Amino acid sequence: MPVARLKQYLDEKGVSYTAIQHAPAYTAQELAEAAHVCGNRLAKTVIVMLDGKMAMIVLRATAKIRWDRLCNELGTDFIELADEEEFADKFPDCEIGALPPFGKLYGMQVYMDEKLANEPEIAFCAGTHAETIRMATKDYLELAKPIVISRGFMQPDATPPLQRIRPGRQQFHLHP
After folding, report:
1. Domain parsing of the chain, residue ranges
2. H or E stretch including 69?
3. Which residues, at least 6 apart from 86, have a Cβ–Cβ distance to it below 8 Å?
4. Per the UniProt record, which residue ranges are transmembrane (predicted)?
5. What is the CATH number of domain 2-154?
6. pTM of the full predicted structure?
């Protein structure tokens, strides 16, 4: 049972949490609806390779990664999305796409979006597509000990800034 390891860890630490069982959900929107959680408080876990080393990025389900800014924020020369084949064996007790944001349980460093870290509550997949854990963000921060970062993320509906220049010159949008 994928959830057992995570629940055991939370129980051992004496943390209060709510386990929410629901119909299987495979997208952030489906999960937010099934678990009745606001998308800004729903965490998604993304596995990346930072200069060849695997790490977790935890961000709001409603956000997107800005790879160029994230690379600068982390001070790394190279960052890429890890392939499922590269990390599936590190999560034998989890369904792919439902990874809990606890790198400590899997030997990985965790980096977390500051906006998510500032939410009072956090919800995330418990290792399966049919169960979500909801807990106080302060408890998550204390247990997971992520490195909280402020740059590298954006809302999907955000409009890139328009560079303003003098009339008669070409205008262009900065790429997100």
Report:
1. 2-154
2. helix 67-74
3. 47, 49, 54
4. none
5. 3.90.960.10
6. 0.84
